[in-house]
Amino acid sequence: MDLNYGQEYENFRKEVQKFCKEYSGVTITNKKGGALTSLNAVADSDKPDGQKVTRAEWQKILIKNGYFARSIPKEFGGFGGEIDIIKNRIIAAEFASSKIPPPMGGQGIDMLVPTLLELGTQEQKEKYIKPTLHGEMIWCQGYSEPNAGSDLASLQTKGELTEGNWVINGQKIWTSTAQYSQMMFCLVRTEPDAPKHAGISYLLIPMDTPGIEIRPLVDMTLHAGFNEVFFTDVTIPETNIVGKRGEGWAVANATLGHERGSLTNPNATMSRLKLLIERMKEETINGEKVIDNPAYRDRLIKLQGKVMAFQSNALRVLSAKLNKGQDVKMAGMIQKLVGTELRHELEGFGIDIMGELGTLYEDSPNIRDGGSWQFTYMYYLGLIIGGGTSQIQKNIISERGLGMPREPKTQQGA
Amino acid sequence: MYFGLSEDQIFFQDNVKKFLEDQAPLDSIKKITEGENLEVKKDLHQGLINLGINNILIPESNGGLGLDLLFATAVSQSLGEGVATLPFIGPYVMAPIVIKYGAGDDQREKLFNDMSQNLINFGVGFSEYFGSRDSSELSISDNKVSGRTLFVLDTDFASHVMVADKTGQIGVVSLDSNGIEIVDLTTVDKTRSYKEMRFKETTIEILEKTKSSTKAIEKALDAGRIINAADSLGASQAMINKAVEYSKERKQFNRVIGSFQAVKHMCAEMTAELEPCYSLVWHAAHSFDDSSEDSRLMSCLAKSHVAEVSKMVAKKATEVHGGMGFTDLLGLHFWFKRIGLNRHILGSPEIVREEAAKIQGL
User: B268 vs A395: CB contact, 8 Å cut-off?
Assistant: First the structure.
């Protein structure tokens, strides 16, 4: 066991800390000039004002310093550094414990860019990666359909090749940020006669193509986090495909791996726990600090044990990336399930320590932290369900991890 | 950077595991827990001594192996997995740590030298310090000890015991001394034995540094709790393995029960909760070895968190076995009960969590 990263990395950490201090006053603005929150973080501003910067400007500052898109080649708009997992981790940890705006996330950056780097053509990499990294091209993911959720491979949105174009008809649902997006990466059934998994292609669809209709779907947080997207004879060039015809399932699986990695961030969970402890020291019930109440205190330490275990687990997964031959298959497989459930529990406890005040929402008087405990509590329920539900994760853990028999197939083929 | 057990640690761990698999099958454990086979128990102990488990934490200069707590943690996992009917935590983990931090220089050299040759062997009774119960009370003065203490650990092969009073002062008592009454406690876990000890003006040698500092007892408790958690970790893994194995063989409704999602999800839930416990326990052991700032906290979190997870595993893994899990025949209860004991030994989860809060100044 050796948890030291070495002097080079400790120096690097100091550089990152210096940067975080320097930019600690930065806020990112949206088009109306208001501060961006996690709710509208994909929107953008056009006029910087003092320390206010636009999303794109902030992305460029981060890339220039190597704190974002670090290992993506310069020709595609990245920093062009070597792949260095430890440096990435140091950046994530220092950003999480400072107040500066994090780099932009979202499905374009977390899922599409790694997929294109792995499987895209040279033209696709040149055309899409740079604007995506700069926050100028927002992507949404067109996977789920009303009848294809956990059983994603049964999707029915159709794509037909006609005169050198794909013509797409059908419907997607649970499409996050579709209303802000310039592009969609989409799974479409292009080979209707092939078996279920072999009939799907991975297409890139400009969202301003005629025939696309977006209907926002308001979720329990009262935000339109999702949309329904309808396609009527949507026509795009034949070349807007990643991988070959019928290989979309394999391409998507590469991407799903990236998504599951991005849904749980131990650093963010640890930061929330620290904030929770601060709140417990400040909030009072009948004049007594919440932290001095033994029942609340016991729940806190219980939670702290879980958070620490999860964070240590992430360290072990990290270690296997640096040390060949270390087997952490199971430790990696459980992360989505454990990470999302844990965060949900943590946010729920944040509500509980406020008591009645914890129920306040939107712009209510007496609200704490802008209602973020309620919002994130609900939001994480979405993440427990999205990206492969907790139940699907348990199937994966038991079948692929523990070698238990698969569910007998009730139907074969598409 | 490397997070995990080293090749040497895994090698040692595997040796202990294989030794127990070969030499201590379930039949043999059953007999030992019924009070038979005491010769076998002695041989098992000697076998593990031959592998070096008594010398892990003894310095090389005193004839020991000079290894660290993470090594002992790796071994403890194997002992839990094999429900070893043998002492470990008291004589081979807590006692050497107490000596390292609590003994005067002369005391330390003599005790370590004797321990490395297995000439003396310690039981450990520290309950007065962290959780006195039932009006037990121990008073130490003028090299005499009087009173009683419960749950003295690992006395099976002990020639001496270390006892602590509520201030954390620790002394060594020879079991040959006058004025000792040893009472057997009967717990649900028959794989290890626990004693109540009553002293009346019994001669005790106080370890010098424990007179003015609680460091020795704190370090010993921290280490003991991590080793205790590792034991439950091993026991829990054994239970999950058995449950998964059984579910692949047992058929109902013309299917193996492991093909039902209800059963699969129970197994996945146990695994998902237990897997991070490895990381937590190893991390805690490493923090201990490194004497890092958060080492006391990490130990408390490892002990209390693993206590909760292993309790859940013990219940669910038994349920996966259905009625068979409930029988004596299958012997699954040895692991169930060991986990039940570990939960409370060296501090029940609520007590330990409260300590964790205090350590952080909360």
Answer: yes
Is A394 in the B-facing interface, judged by CB distances under 8 Å? yes
With 0-12 / 13-18 / 19 or more C-beta atoms within 10 angstroms meaning exposed / middle / buried, residue B360 is: middle
Q: Tell me, yes or no, whether B2 lies in a domain.
A: no
Residues B220 and B345 reside in one and the same domain: yes
Name the residue facing B272 among A280, A312, A337 (closest C-beta): A337
Q: Are residue B244 and residue B142 in the same domain, yes or no?
A: no
For A339, the closest chain B residue by CA position comes to: B272
Q: What is the CATH number of the domain that holds B152?
A: 2.40.110.10
CA B217 from centre of chain: 16
Domains, chain A, ordered by start: 7-104 (no CATH), 138-248 (2.40.110.10), 263-401 (1.20.140.10)
Asked whether the predicted pLDDT for residue A40 surpasses 70, the reply is no
Residue where one domain finishes, among candidates B180, B211, B242: B211
Q: Which amino acid is at A81?
A: G
Report the domain count for chain B.
3
Residue contact A334–B304, C-beta within 8 A: no
Same domain? B73 vs B129: no
Q: What percent of chain B has pLDDT over 70?
A: 100
Considering B57, B89, B116, which residue would you say is the last residue of a domain? B116
Of B271, B276, B353, the CB nearest to A309: B276
Query: Which residue has 């909030």 as its token pair?
Result: A283
ipTM of the complex: 0.96
Instruction: Note whether B137 and B112 are same-domain residues.
Output: no
Q: For A144-192, write each residue's pLDDT tens digit.
A: 999 999 899 999 999 999 999 999 999 999 998 898 899 999 999 999 9
- Please state, as a whole number, how many other Cβ atoms lie within 10 Å of the Cβ of residue A71: 16
- Claim to verify: residue B241 and residue B334 sit in the same structural domain: yes
Instruction: Give the residue among A63, A281, A139 at the shortest CA–CA distance from B362.
Output: A281
Residue with tokens 């370890």: B207
* Domain shared by B201 and B226, yes or no: no
Give the integer Cα–Cα distance in Å for A129 and A135. 10
Specify the pTM.
0.91
What is the rounded CA–CA span in Å between residue B94 and residue B216? 9
Taking only the tens place, the pLDDT of each residue in A44-99 is 433 334 467 778 888 999 999 999 999 999 999 999 998 888 898 899 889 888 87
* Nearest of B314, B321, B361, B362 to residue B338 by alpha carbon: B314
A326 touches chain B (CB under 8 A): yes
Q: At what angle do helices A335-354 and A294-322 cross, to 10 degrees?
A: 160
Whether B65 is covered by a domain: the verdict is yes
Q: Measure in Å the smallest separation between the Cα of A309 and chain B Cα atoms.
A: 5
Closest CA to A103 of A149, A40, A41: A41
Of A86, A315, A394, the CB nearest to B279: A315
**Has residue B226 been placed in a domain?**
yes
Note whether B225 and B338 are same-domain residues: yes
CATH of the domain at B339: 1.20.140.10
Q: Which CATH number characterizes residue B66's domain?
A: 1.10.540.10
Which domain range does residue B200 map to? 122-211
Residue A309 contacts B, CB cutoff 8 Å = yes
Contact state of A330 with B271 under an 8 Å Cβ cutoff: yes
Report d(CA B303, CA A41) in Å as an integer.
Answer: 41
Name the amino acid, one letter, at A128.
Answer: Y
